[in-house]
TrEMBL record:
Gene3D superfamilies: 3.10.450.50
Entry protein name: SnoaL-like domain-containing protein
Source superkingdom: Bacteria
GO BP annotation list: polyketide metabolic process
SUPFAM superfamilies: NTF2-like
Length: 157
């Protein structure tokens, strides 16, 4: 596991105010509500560093901010009714926010290449950690409950 400190992401001050922490949580909530649920990427463009790093065990996106947006767009394309609900959000450190999600979506493949997944609905959990420097998110780590996805949709291929 990569230590967050090795990425140069550390607390800028030990005395970050509670207001900043709630601002961080508000930014993460906005990413879920606006970007994931609605497809509006304004908050990502404003608060995610262009060179954000994904340090997830199973890589969820590459290519910085653009890669994050593309990953969400693909998920929304494959599951047009995708809804993410926040079941937990908390500050873990002075610059770190953890969020637990419950996602539900119905798989809709390409019309010209339908698969056995088409029309199946899945519900699964995800946990994400977002690291901030100032009001910019500079790193991300996510864990996806792939077992629940496979149980609902079947294996990927």
């Amino acid at each position: 596991m990569i230590a967050v400190q090795t990425l140069g992401i550390e607390c800028e001050r030990a005395s970050i105010r509670a207001a900043a922490a709630s601002d961080f949580e508000s930014i993460v909530l906005a990413i879920v509500r606006e970007a994931v649920n609605e497809g509006d990427f304004t908050v990502i463009n404003e608060h995610v560093a262009s060179d954000i790093v994904d340090i997830s065990p199973q890589c969820l996106f590459t290519g910085g901010r653009r890669g994050l947006v593309e990953a969400i767009q693909v998920a929304r394309y494959r599951m047009p009714d995708l809804i993410a609900r926040v079941h937990e959000i908390r500050r873990a450190d002075c610059n770190e926010v953890l969020v637990g999600l419950m996602l539900t979506g119905t798989y809709a493949g390409d019309n010209l290449a339908p698969t056995a997944h088409n029309g199946k609905t899945a519900t699964w959990r995800q946990r994400h950690t977002w690291w901030f420097r100032g009001y910019q998110i500079t790193a991300h780590r996510g864990e996806v409950d792939t077992a629940a996805l496979y149980a609902a949709l079947g294996p990927p291929y």
